[in-house]
Amino acid sequence: MIALKLIQIGNSVGVVLPKEALIKLGVERGDTVYLTDAVGGEMRLSAYSPEVADEVALGEKFMDQYRDTFRALAK
User: Rounded CA gap, 72 and 42, in Å?
Assistant: First the structure.
């Protein structure tokens, strides 16, 4: 478990993520992380975006559907 400290940032409150947490999440300053609901009323912090995952899945489906066309264009 990693303890996180809340700090005042202007009129807001921010969370300080230690270097160890940034490495585990695979993020750096300026990246976006997502806080989502988890089982049992808990919250989960991750670099995973469900919306982006859906878009990637749609792109993969499109590429599978037109695989022959892409191969012909790549020649």
Answer: 49
